[in-house]
Amino acid sequence: YGLYIVKLALLLVMIGGTGKQSNDGLKVRGEMHLLLVGDPGTAKSQFLKYAAKLSPRSVLTTGVGTTSAGLTVAAVRDGGSGGEWMLEAGALVLADRGVCCIDEFSSIRENEKTAVHEVMEQQTISGAKAGMIINLNARCTIIAATNAKGKYDVNQSLSVNVGLASPLLSRFDLVLILSDNNDRDWDAKVADFILGLTTQKSKPEPLSLFSNSILEPQSLFGFSQLQSYIQHVKSRFNPTSTRESELILTTYYQFQRQKEFRSAARTTIRLLESLIRLSQAHARLMFRDKITKVDAVMAVYLMEFSNNNADALHINFPDNPDKFYRDTEKDILQKLGLTDQV
């Protein structure tokens, strides 16, 4: 029920941005990564399962993994100790060109964390095992979930709360916090929604993840329609920036860099790259090949939740989307001092 911010972020991550590779081999990834950090019972695993079903190619696993390969790759002997060495692909390799959903992300093995760093930015797995030189593609989107260490403490850094190092956290385009705080009105709405599902006398209509309610006939995309739409916009559009979008994104990046109490892990140059990918994904979502002011504003809006560690759990779908956007645009442009420039 609800979770507007998380659902919008998940949809944009599934769509992704536009990757680029120069003639001299320099590559900028288009795949995005999302980390959900929250208390138990905040639907993190449900989002991972939905994303895995939504993607034509996906792997759903845990941070520990179920085989010796784990998330990356392992060298194993074929047929016992006398056999030849073979490579066993892990979850990230199997999810190449797709989505890898990782639950309990903070439980990644220590010997795999370095390889995960490479996968998330360079989209490859390199190394040497059993005399074999390894260079495998892992061009996948990572959607991960983890619990905080105890109750999430807003006075502590994100790295301390989840037990992950800053270099790993900086590779996520968005990190959303789901804090299960006491909220009387929210609890009542969620209870009514869940009880309504269990007391339906007739065959229930399908649920839509990307709305507040049960699907109404002819009104919202069904699962297969949503799946087809995502694949269509990914293959059709390669959005290009405009003057307005570039001005908003660069100004926001500079604004974050100049903050006195900024997070060093979340305000590197990767922040600007994440903003570009988010705006590209939003332009694709809106079925256009130009990144407009709307796309840049929504990218900044989502990034504000990520950078400020704001609670994304109790955000409902807006009743009036047009008014919501106008108010959001006004607030962001005023904050960045761009009201008269765009």
Automatic annotation (TrEMBL):
<dbReference type="GO" id="GO:0003697">
    <property type="term" value="F:single-stranded DNA binding"/>
</dbReference>
<feature type="domain" description="MCM C-terminal AAA(+) ATPase">
    <location>
        <begin position="1"/>
        <end position="194"/>
    </location>
</feature>
<dbReference type="GO" id="GO:0006260">
    <property type="term" value="P:DNA replication"/>
</dbReference>
<dbReference type="InterPro" id="IPR001208">
    <property type="entry name" value="MCM_dom"/>
</dbReference>
<keyword id="KW-0378">Hydrolase</keyword>
<dbReference type="GO" id="GO:0005524">
    <property type="term" value="F:ATP binding"/>
</dbReference>
<keyword id="KW-0347">Helicase</keyword>
<protein>
    <recommendedName>
        <fullName>DNA helicase</fullName>
        <ecNumber>3.6.4.12</ecNumber>
    </recommendedName>
</protein>
<dbReference type="Pfam" id="PF17855">
    <property type="entry name" value="MCM_lid"/>
</dbReference>
<dbReference type="InterPro" id="IPR031327">
    <property type="entry name" value="MCM"/>
</dbReference>
<comment type="similarity">
    <text>Belongs to the MCM family.</text>
</comment>
<dbReference type="InterPro" id="IPR003593">
    <property type="entry name" value="AAA+_ATPase"/>
</dbReference>
<dbReference type="InterPro" id="IPR018525">
    <property type="entry name" value="MCM_CS"/>
</dbReference>
<keyword id="KW-0732">Signal</keyword>
<keyword id="KW-0067">ATP-binding</keyword>
<dbReference type="Pfam" id="PF00493">
    <property type="entry name" value="MCM"/>
</dbReference>
<dbReference type="InterPro" id="IPR041562">
    <property type="entry name" value="MCM_lid"/>
</dbReference>
<keyword id="KW-0547">Nucleotide-binding</keyword>
<feature type="signal peptide">
    <location>
        <begin position="1"/>
        <end position="20"/>
    </location>
</feature>
<dbReference type="GO" id="GO:0042555">
    <property type="term" value="C:MCM complex"/>
</dbReference>
<dbReference type="InterPro" id="IPR027417">
    <property type="entry name" value="P-loop_NTPase"/>
</dbReference>
<keyword id="KW-0238">DNA-binding</keyword>
<dbReference type="GO" id="GO:0000724">
    <property type="term" value="P:double-strand break repair via homologous recombination"/>
</dbReference>
<dbReference type="GO" id="GO:0016787">
    <property type="term" value="F:hydrolase activity"/>
</dbReference>
<dbReference type="GO" id="GO:0017116">
    <property type="term" value="F:single-stranded DNA helicase activity"/>
</dbReference>
<dbReference type="GO" id="GO:0005634">
    <property type="term" value="C:nucleus"/>
</dbReference>
